[in-house]
Design brief:
615 residues; 8-stranded antiparallel sheet; alpha/beta; 27 strands; Rossmann fold; binds 2-deoxy-2-amino glucitol-6-phosphate; 7-stranded antiparallel sheet; Glutamine Phosphoribosylpyrophosphate, subunit 1, domain 1; 3 domains
Length: 615
């Protein structure tokens, strides 16, 4: 949510910053801006619209500088206007700042600063902070304060409530950039006699191979060849430089039209990478050393709580079905944002899992912190190596799905589900799951990448189906058991990228209300891959047909839907444990092609951003 880039070195800063912004545009894209510093002269440009609009503006107003900061915005406070775009400049013109996060007490700060003679030209919370930095800098006039710029930022942050990732430059202190974070990711890329700043490692692609992850409550003074870090409480911190694993961060679009399309097609590989090295054929179980828990400790677990948001929350719901079925451990699933603020009673032998593709979602991060604070062992499933969630959890499993850029999550979901299946297998085999049952699940898990490839071959047929259905504005998605979360995920995909109103329900729940929506203008997608309850699902389909609702069946029993469904997407018959993964792929494709038909911007859907780092 919002992309930040910064550069200090000996090269022309503007092209490097714009290049970084383009890579980060998936984090927010309603407006963007840049502040460049040459000696004591600062040049600032901000524009509503995509980064390309800013790039044109910069081209028309060239300004040579080797230091600068820039930002691509996802609006929180204040509408989408040039004035509200970042960087924000203090009213004395001395400081420019880019900010990701929310300053919760900005009104209080603003009122205080108005009394001190500062003026404001935007409706943002961020402008209060840059003026507060100026105020603290000027308070020290006459004092011979070493690191006066760093100190001004640190002092200002002591008064801030809320979250921030910031980068600040000043024409009064030309040789450095100050960066700080609390709740919003910020990374420093270490190059040769140059440093970069980014809210995502992707911003460094092709520019730096080493990174310093700023932690919450840290402030850094960055010069071309040095980075000094202190805490907000003024304690010196040792810089830890880590190497970036670019194999995991590749974000080239290749021959695909959109990242979402690319990522849908990457699923066989992502699934393969999620299970690599994590299966023991000899013992018909999983090998999950990343959990950092001994078999004995894991056997003590009486209950598991899963917390996440959005698509990752749907993966948690699938985990509930899988773990309860195969490991016989009670599982509860909470929206991370709810868990944090309610007083959920947790038994002492509860294990907490958080799932987050980005590893930066603030609601999930805060749920993790809350459960750790309460003393629970908290593990994470995340796709982002080095992310805050991965660093703060007690252990966990990386997805290794490769960078996911498309705002609509696809490969991350199926890879999260297969990891949850590995957990179900592992914990099941420690309890009552027999060797032969474990062996069946192992075989099923291993078959997933190949079956996923086969299902992707349905794309041309699904594309045609999408053409037929793209005109509708309301959809129902129905599924039962582990395909109920798949119904939720199918509905979410459709609404995110094509702005079609879509609802997911357990199929049998339809009779208790949603059936009122069924009519010729509201198609239903029904998932029916469970033999045990097939007759029930067929009855649900009949009920829809009787009310003239258009119907798409996603099923491995196509015969059962002949004469009832208008369109059938036929899936192969697979082991029960992997059905939710296989059933998800066709609806990802359906959502993608419907959005294309409707002319929507698939990778940059309106109002959304990839990593949601504000509450
Ligand atoms: C999925 O398509 C969404 N864009 C969104 O729901 C996402 O899954 C959610 O914000 C959680 O993100 P995370 O996995 O990075 O924590």
């Amino acid at each position: 949510m919002c992309g930040i880039t910064g550069y200090i070195g000996s090269r022309e800063a503007a092209p490097i910053l714009i290049e970084g912004l383009r890579k980060l545009e998936y984090r927010g894209y309603d407006s963007s801006g840049i502040a460049l510093l040459r000696g004591n002269t600062m040049s600032v440009h901000k524009k509503k619209g995509r980064v390309s609009v800013l790039a044109d503006e910069i081209q028309n107003h060239p300004f040579h500088a080797t230091t600068g900061i820039s930002h691509t915005r996802w609006a929180t406070h204040g509408g989408v206007t040039d004035a509200n775009a970042h960087p924000h400049v203090s009213s004395d013109g001395d400081f420019a700042m880019v900010h990701n996060g929310i300053i919760e007490n900005y009104e209080y700060i603003r009122n205080f600063l108005l009394g001190q003679g500062y003026t404001f030209s935007s409706q943002t919370d961020s402008e209060a902070l840059v003026n507060l930095i100026s105020y603290h800098y000027n308070k020290r006039t006459g004092e011979n304060t070493p690191n006066r710029f760093l100190e001004a930022v640190r002092k200002a942050l002591l008064h801030v409530e809320g979250t921030y990732g910031i980068a600040v430059i000043s024409r009064l202190a030309p040789g450095e950039i100050i960066a700080a974070r609390k709740g919003s990711p910020l990374l420093i890329g270490v190059g040769k006699n140059e440093m970069l700043i980014s809210s995502d490692v992707l911003g460094f692609a092709g520019r730096a191979n080493n990174v310093i992850y700023l932690d919450d409550g840290q402030v850094a003074s960055i010069t071309p060849d040095n980075c000094d870090i202190i805490t907000i409480g003024n304690k010196q911190i040792e810089c830890e430089i880590k190497e970036i694993d670019w194999a995991l961060e590749n974000a080239d679009l290749g021959n695909y039209s959109h990242y979402m399309e690319k990522e849908i097609y990457e699923q066989p590989k992502a699934l393969e990478d999620a299970i690599r090295g994590r299966i023991s054929d000899d013992n018909s179980t999983a090998v999950l050393s990343g959990l950092n828990m001994s078999p004995n400790e894991l056997r003590q677990i009486d209950r598991i709580l899963f917390c996440a948001c959005g698509t990752a929350w749907h993966a948690c719901l699938v985990a509930e079905y899988l773990i309860e079925k195969y490991a016989r451990i009670p599982v509860e699933v909470e929206y991370a944002s709810e868990f944090r603020y309610r007083s959920a009673p947790l038994d002492k032998n509860t294990l907490v899992f958080v799932i987050s593709q980005s590893g930066e979602t603030i609601d999930t991060l805060e749920a993790l912190r809350e459960s750790k604070r309460k003393g629970f062992r908290t593990l994470a499933i995340t796709n982002s190596v080095g992310s805050t969630i991965s660093r703060e959890s007690d252990g966990g499993l990386y997805q290794y799905a490769g960078k996911e850029v498309g705002v609509a999550s696809t490969k991350a979901f199926t890879s999260q589900v297969i990891i949850c299946l590995l957990i179900a297998l592992y914990m099941g085999r420690m309890r009552d799951l027999s060797f032969p049952d474990g062996k069946e699940i192992v075989a099923a898990i291993k078959s997933v990448p190949q079956i996923a490839s086969k299902v992707l071959e349905l794309a041309p047929m699904i594309k045609e189906t999408a053409k037929k259905y793209s005109k509708y504005d309301d959809f129902l998605f129905l599924g039962r058991l582990s395909e109920f979360p798949v119904a939720l995920e199918g509905a979410l995909k459709l609404k995110e990228i094509s702005y079609i109103h879509a609802e997911g329900y357990p199929a049998a729940e339809m009779k208790h209300g949603p059936i009122a929506l069924v009519c010729p203008e509201c198609p239903t997608v029904i998932f029916a891959n469970s033999e045990d309850i097939l007759p029930k699902l067929v009855s649900n389909a009949q009920e829809i047909k009787a009310r003239k609702g258009p119907l798409i069946a996603v099923t491995d029993s196509p015969k059962a839907f002949e004469g009832i469904a208008d369109d059938i997407i036929e899936l192969p018959k697979v082991h029960d444990s992997i059905k939710p993964i296989i059933a998800t792929i066709p609806v990802q494709l359906l959502a993608y092609y419907v959005a294309i038909e409707r002319g929507c911007d698939v990778d940059k859907p309106r109002n959304l951003a990839k990593a949601v780092t504000v509450e």
